[in-house]
Amino acid sequence: MLDDIKKTLWATADKLRANMDAAEYKHLVLGLIFLKYISDTFAARRVELTKRFADEADDYFLHECDADMLADELEDRDYYKEVNVFWVPEAARWEALRAAAKQTDIGKRIDEALTVIEQENPKLKGILDKRYGRAQLPDGKLGELVDLVSTIGFGDDPGAARDVLGQVYEYFLGQFASAEGKKGGQFYTPASIVKTLVAVLAPHHGKVYDPCCGSGGMFVQSEKFIEAHGGKLGDVAIFGQESNPTTWRLAAMNLAIRGIDYNLGKEPGDTFTKNQHPDLRADFILANPPFNISDWWHGSLEGDPRWVYGDPPLGNANYAWLQHMLHHLGGSGRAGIVLANGSMSSSQNNEGHIRAAMVDADVVEVMIALPGQLFFNTQIPACLWFLAKKKAARQGEVLFVDARKLGKMISRVQAELTDEVIKRIAATVAAWRGEGGEYADQPGYCRSVKLAEIAEHGHVLTPGRYVGAEEVEDDDEAFAEKMQKLTEKLGEQMAKGAELDALIRQKLGGLGYEF
């Protein structure tokens, strides 16, 4: 039933956006869902307090309480803050906004509501995106959107309402990512990839870190995993960072809507140059950094202590991400990272030397090749790296898993890993680690390989080379290396082009031309 509700809500919301770009519209819809969540949980706590104030057997019972006293008591902020419920001033409550949905100034009213909520709740400072008053929607559409969001959240049970709103929020994130295509992929990692990372890492407790957290999907899935395995919300401490300000806000809202406590740093910022958690040593790291980014380098990173295994190339951040995550792992910590396939075999600009040093240091634990078309509107083939600061078992070996043929198409352009496939992969890794079941190599699927054999293959970490699909893999590897070279060359040429453009403008400016 909930799936049908989500689809109906999305179809209606998408219809309302008229000609507005999905990237802009996303913030309007998700912001309203968050505002509805805040208001619903506040209202549910208010109902609960009203009942307790009247119950003689309850510690909160109010003797000789008249209507005025009850009204005053219900406005005491401490009753809400003690159970981590955001305080919502009267003018900002959902029913007040819903009553004004047809007014021409509804956008301004929503912005004002968000402003006072931020003022009353320091945890939300800088998080709420106040863009409704200037939204480029046709007359009446914003009011219709308010009416639509009013239908989300069922019953008086705050836990049930939170779950419904959380699922709707997550579903809408995925739909917006699909609508935005490649750009949307920058803030949203497809669910099956996140589930695979979480299933293999099994983050039961401790500190969980994502240095490029997007909209927070890794954290949400980690909490779901913990709850599904008998743990409770709060068994892990969440640490994250995100450079894009609007995506940083999405992540904070995504976590808050589920009651997950978090530390995403004081502000959005670049992980390499403005590290928000310099002293953090995490038990688990899950990340999907942007692939092959060429404009990441800054002079201040020269000789950085994170580059233990070698200086990353200036034109590609892949090995900077890998080393950043190793730096932030605790003594027995594990990391799972999504990267482009080229990272497994590239020998350009010191990458081969760094990879060899990492393999020889025995910090590479598991390598998984993924099917194509898992990401929104991008054909770049990807893989999963699993790193361990200190392996608890299987020292001197790396497990290779080739899952390239295990994807299932869910649309004409997109595939996913089914829950059954994810369970198979997780069980394979667990057995290999000695954590349940018996491990055995399976030709064409998985194989445990000694470091000496990996060295014989030039420290290439492509699973197909080891599990029995070498001919096919060689083609993929050649393609990946070619793409890597072309990407780096393009980045260099674009940088030179920008320099020349600036120089031409400077020269023409000296001749009196204006731009």
Briefly characterize the structure.
The chain has 515 residues and is an alpha/beta fold.
What key phrases describe this protein's structure?
single chain, 515 residues, Ferritin, Rossmann fold, two-stranded antiparallel ribbon, 10 strands, 11% strand, globular
Write the layout of secondary structure elements.
Layout: H1 2-16, H2 22-53, H3 67-74, H4 78-81, H5 94-99, H6 106-120, H7 141-149, H8 158-180, H9 191-201, E1 206-210, H10 217-228, E2 236-240, H11 245-256, E3 282-287, H12 318-327, E4 329-340, H13 351-360, E5 364-369, E6 382-388, E7 397-402, E8 408-409, E9 415-416, H14 419-433, E10 446-450, H15 451-456, H16 463-467, H17 470-510
Parallel strand pairs: 1-2, 1-3, 3-4, 5-7
Antiparallel strand pairs: 4-6, 5-6, 7-10, 8-9
Helix pairs in contact: 1-7, 2-8, 2-11, 9-10, 9-14
Please provide the ordered H/E string of secondary-structure elements: HHHHHHHHHEHEHEHEHEEEEEHEHHH
Relative strand content? 5-15%
Within the CATH hierarchy, at the fold level, what is the topology of the largest domain?
Answer: Rossmann fold
Question: Strand order of the main beta sheet, please?
Answer: 2-1-3-4-6-5-7-10
Count of discrete structural domains: 2
Tell me the total number of β-strands: 10
Mean pLDDT: 85
Annotated CATH homologous superfamily of the largest domain: Vaccinia Virus protein VP39
Indicate the radius of gyration in whole angstroms: 26 Å
Overall body shape:
globular
User: Any guess at the CATH architecture of the largest domain?
Assistant: 3-Layer(aba) Sandwich
Q: Based on helices, strands and strand pairing, what is the structural class?
A: alpha/beta
Q: What's the level 1 CATH class of the largest domain?
A: Alpha Beta
Low-confidence regions: 470-475
The total count of helices amounts to 17
The residue fraction in helices comes out at 40-55%
Q: Main β-sheet, in a few words? A: 8 strands, mixed
- Determine the N-to-C terminus distance: 57 Å
